[in-house]
Amino acid sequence: MARKKVKLEYIANDASRRATFKKRRKGLIKKVSELSTLCDVKACLVVYGHDEPVPEVWPSGADAVRVVARLKRMPEMEQSKKMMDQEGFMRQRIAKLQEQVRKLERENREMEISLSMNERMLGGGGGLEAIGVEEVTGLAWLVEVKVGEVRRRIEAMSKAAKAAPVATSGNPWIMDSFFPLN
Amino acid sequence: MARKKVKLEYIANDASRRATFKKRRKGLIKKVSELSTLCDVKACLVVYGHDEPVPEVWPSGADAVRVVARLKRMPEMEQSKKMMDQEGFMRQRIAKLQEQVRKLERENREMEISLSMNERMLGGGGGLEAIGVEEVTGLAWLVEVKVGEVRRRIEAMSKAAKAAPVATSGNPWIMDSFFPLN
DNA sequence: CGTGCTATTTATAATCG
DNA sequence: TCGATTATAAATAGCAC
C-alpha cells in the first residue's frame, strides 16, 4: 500500500517478502489490539513466521495459543469423519444398543437444551461463522459428553472385533455414524 | 482513521462502537488473509464479538465451527445403524450394551453436574463477561484432550485390526490420515 | 440497522543511507 | 540487513440516506 499497488500473491523476492512480513505482521498486531480496546472484544491473532520457531501471538500467548490450537484441530476431526466412513461393517445387532444409546442421548439433549446453549447455533443450519464465548463454553461440555459416548462405542467395537473378526468387503468403520455430515 | 483521529479507548457510544467493530473486524480479516497470501505464512485470527453470537475466525473458522456444531447436532445417529454389525458379529453384546448404558447413565449424571457448573458460569443475569479467556481456554483444552483420547483409541483399534486382519477391499485403516499428529 | 460516500488518518512499498 | 523517509494505496470515522 504505498509507492505501488501490490498484487495479492506470493512475493517471490525473498528480501521483499521478509520486509513485508515484518511490517504487516506488526501492523496486524496493532490492529488487533486496537479493535480489542476500542470495542472491548476478545480476539486473538497468531502468526507463524516461516523461520521463527515461536509464533507471534496476541494477546499474551498461552491462552490464546491453546484456544487457537484447538480450533485449528477441529478440521482434522472433520477428516476423521471421512476416514472411517466406508461400507458396512457390523450392521444389525446394534439396533438395541442404538436404541438405548439414543434414549440416553435424548436425555442428554434435553439437558443440553435446558442449558439453552444452542438454538442459535443449531438453528442456522450452517451459517455458523464463529462461536461466542458462551457457545464455546457450552460446546466444550457438550463435546466432552459426545466424545465420551463415541469413545465408549469404539471401545465396545474394539472388543467385539477382537472377539469375533468378520470378513468385510469394504471399509468397516462408518464414522458418519459418529460424525454425521448433516 | 478518517474524518477524525480516534482515541485508543473504549468507544462508549453503542452505535459507533458496533459500526467500528464491524468495519475493523472485516479489515482485520482481510489483512490477515493478505499477509498469509503475500508471505505464505500460517496465521489465525479469532474475534469474539460481544453481541455477536458467532465469533469470526480466520482461516476456516466456519469449517471448524461447523464440525463442532455437527458434533452437537449428532442427534438421531440414524446412519449409525450401519456402523457396526455385519453378519452375526456381536451377539452377546447385550452385556456390553448394558455396560455401556450404565456408563452413559453415569455420563448423564456427570453432565448434570456440568450443567450446574455451567449455569453458574453463565448465570448471574447475563454476566457472560464473567467468563474469561481462562475459562474458555480451560474448557477448550479439555475438549482437545478428549479428542486425543478418541484418536488414540482408534489407533489402538487400527493396530488390533492389522494383527487380526479382516478382509477388505480398500485401505480403511490409515488412521494417521484421519488424525494427523500434527 | 445497513449502505454509500468522502475526508483524513494509517499502513506501507519503494527508496535511501 | 536494518532503520528512517516518503509517496501512495488502504482503511475507516463521521455523515447522509
From TrEMBL, chains A, B:
CDD domains on file: MADS_SRF_like (cd00266)
Keywords annotated in UniProt: Coiled coil, DNA-binding, Nucleus, Transcription, Transcription regulation
Aminoacyl-tRNA synthetase as UniProt keyword: no
One GO cellular component term: nucleus
UniProt record, GO biological process: positive regulation of transcription by RNA polymerase II
Domain MADS-box: 1-49
Signal sequence range: none
Domain of life: Eukaryota
A GO MF term: protein dimerization activity
Protein name: MADS-box domain-containing protein
Provenance organism: Asparagus officinalis (Garden asparagus)
